[in-house]
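fold description:
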Amino acid sequence: MSAFIAQSVEPGQRVKRPRPMRANAGVRAAYHEVLLREIAAMRHDVTTTILREYRGNYPHLAQDASPLEGLHRTFGRLMDKWQSRFDSFAEIAAQGFVGQAASSATRGVSSALKDLGFTVKFQRSHTVNLAIEGCLAENVNLIKSIPSGCLGEVVDLVETSAKSGRDIGALTKDIKSRFDVADSRAALIARDQNNKVTANVTRARQKELGIKQGRWRHSGFSTAPRPSHVAADGEIFDLDKGLYLDGKWVLPGEAINCGCTWTMIIPGYNDGQP
């Protein structure tokens, strides 16, 4: 797309402030729900299967290695089953989410420009495709990592319980707690990746138009904000580079769980605006 050229602003002319781009909460919620459903299915299958076998062998687990070996074999089958399922699920879920988040980000840029009196029609481009491909790969890998991260710890819980002769009630609570951690991780993935896709696609779209700078806007939503990000509010940065914070160059929405965004600085329009 050709560079976006704004008309010059006459002295004294009122300049509207561009609004910051925000990640779509509906897209985040939908992605979170998709992840939770798949984790819930895994939770039910693993919990039911393991507890049934644990209950049947409970009297002998602490004294006899054979029942424990059987539990390991059962767990191996469950791990293979759910890793394979999440490997397939990851491609579909990531494509759906990234596509929705990218479309929402593009609409957001168009809408923000329209509020300022500019009309832009975007097409898919190489720059945006690269941004989407990077986000897609990251989300696929994150989803694929869920079973190993969760089930690896569950098998340790089962083995520890078996060797110490703990009752099934205590093990049930431990397994539930571990799957609750997986649910929390799904929430983090949905929130963090929604911010990242929105930031990456928004930046790509703005760069297509010749917009090279932005003004950092701290989200203000976090209960534990990064002090450097709070201090960065209002600072101007290059879209290719970001700001040097905490010992490294970083862009809004790039750090894990960062909800910061920015307002675009349009050459000839608001580049002189404080």
Observations:
- DSSP finds five helices and five strands in the chain.
- The helical segments are 25-57, 65-115, 126-164, 168-208, 227-231.
